[in-house]
Write a structure and sequence with these properties.
This protein has about 220 residues and is of the alpha+beta class. The protein is about 55% helix and about 20% strand.
């Protein structure tokens, strides 16, 4: 009985057949391509799309990572600051109490609106007590700020240099805050040793609740 010879594989013929599928391809109509180049194009397109999406996701993830790292650093700094405050909490409380006491002392030096007449009388009496003669004592327009009101008083007094100096010292020692501004000294021509002092005495007072409310409404409107 004769043996069958093994079938030989013609690689060159297969290669020629595959190459023939890539000849004369129409780039404008891939749907008409043979099976092998059409499927190969599909695979290439899929790989390209996946690669683009992958790199886009990597880039967005990298930006998110950088943002999260910056946020982490901010949180670390905030934590350190709060940790320092927590460690020094008792000292901060004592400091707050001292500040509140200081503010209370300053507030006591500010008269209320009802006490302004008494303060003006004190300024006048301080001058008369030093034998000064008031040529002018004229309260000006009240300037209202956010927390207090300022009252300027134009004054002109005559007297000796020594008495005027003592008057300024008496004003500084008043229990209420009074400042002397824009001072000028001029000698009287017809009276030797007598000077005239012009200036503006400024004093400050609390705002009444109505004034505080008006200030807050005005601020809110702005």
């Amino acid at each position: 009985m004769a043996k069958k010879s093994p079938t030989s594989f013609d690689f060159q013929a297969l290669q020629a057949r595959l190459q023939s599928q890539f000849r004369n391809l129409d780039p404008n109509d891939p749907s008409q391509w043979p099976t092998l180049p059409r499927n190969l194009l599909f695979v290439v397109v899929c790989v390209a799309v996946v690669a683009v999406l992958w790199f886009a996701w990597i880039q967005s993830s990298d930006e998110e990572l950088v943002a999260e790292k910056a946020k982490e650093e901010q949180l670390r700094q905030s934590y350190k600051g709060k940790l320092v405050q927590a460690v020094n909490l008792d000292a901060l409380k004592k400091q707050l109490e001292q500040v509140q006491q200081y503010v209370t002392q300053l507030e006591k030096q500010l008269p209320s609106k009802a006490e302004m007449d008494a303060l003006l009388s004190d300024i006048n009496q301080a001058g008369l007590g030093r034998s000064l003669q008031f040529e002018l004592f004229r309260p000006g327009q009240v300037a209202v700020s956010e927390y207090y009101a300022e009252l300027p008083i134009s004054i002109r007094v005559t007297g000796s240099y020594h008495d005027i100096g003592l008057f300024a010292a008496d004003i500084a020692n008043l229990s209420r805050i009074v400042t002397l501004n824009n001072l000028s000294l001029n000698p009287l021509r017809d009276r030797e040793g007598v000077l005239t002092m012009d200036g503006v005495a400024k004093t400050y007072r609390y705002l009444d609740p109505e004034e505080v409310s008006a200030q807050q409404k005005g601020k809110g409107a702005k």
